[in-house]
Amino acid sequence: MTDPSPPPDALPARPPWARRADAAVLRAARLLGRLLGRPSEAALHRLARADRPAPPVRVPTAAELGIVDHLGDGRAALADGRPGDALHHFGQLLETAPDHAWAWHGRGDALQLLGDHDGALAAYRRAAARQPTTGIHRLGAANALAALGQTAAADDETRAGLALDPSLTWMRPAP
Fold first, then answer.
1. Which of 46, 92, 102, 121 is 20 to 30 A from 29, alpha carbon to alpha carbon?
2. Average pLDDT for the chain
3. Of 63, 60, 85, residue with least CA distance to 74
4. Average pLDDT in the 18-25 region?
């Protein structure tokens, strides 16, 4: 003898009124499709593209535009151990942008490596005058003062630089 009950995962039969409503909706959809027609491929393509983000814009590099990046080239020269070349690049930048604090700082770094501690101190002070809230310029001046043997002034500059940016303890130990 077989069990007449439906399997437990079977869906219950839809009532007759629901089947009639489904058929009416289907007829209305067919009629609407005939009246409106099929959307064009161009319209479908536009709709599909509307969901996608725009492609990223590529910004050309300074070299591609023919612009010389004196600050970057000067920093690279310092990293490569060529302070003379770095001094040239920072000087070129300062000719066109005399208020560029980081060019003055880089000039101070190059002069410091070349042994011109007085010139380095002047460059660091010019950088600090242009960006008074940047502590690294003050710590550069502290290093130049320490190299000149002016330890009390170097300690004062170090305190001032660390007050502006306490994360710079790697540069020079606090007095």
1. 46
2. 84
3. 85
4. 87
